[in-house]
Design brief:
- The chain is of the alpha+beta class and 95 residues long.
- The protein has one domain.
- 28% of the residues lie in helices and 23% in strands.
- The chain has two helices and four strands, in the order H-E-E-E-E-H.
- Strands 3-2-1-4 form a four-stranded antiparallel beta sheet.
- Strand 2 and strand 3 form a beta hairpin.
- The longest helix has 18 residues.
- The relative contact order is 0.15.
Length: 95
Amino acid sequence: MENFNETNQTGDLTNPQDSLNAALIFARALSFILQENQGIIVDLKNGIQLEEGAEKVIVFKHQEQIHIYKCEEEIEEGTAVMMSETPFESQEEKK
């Protein structure tokens, strides 16, 4: 089996396009696993920075796309959650 990602000695991807491809493939794989409005809590570790003060996110499926929202509640990493329709409606109104 061939690995399509080129890595350096520390295991980091060497090509930015490889990083983007890996993220897109992983998001697509998640879209087959998660049901509509179903998500999972993920802690931000190992230098991942999305916005100041964000310590964890909710990765979930909505309208056939994978979304990532900041999680402000104390929920254990790996917990499965169901998102309601209400947050999406309010987010879309802000745009």
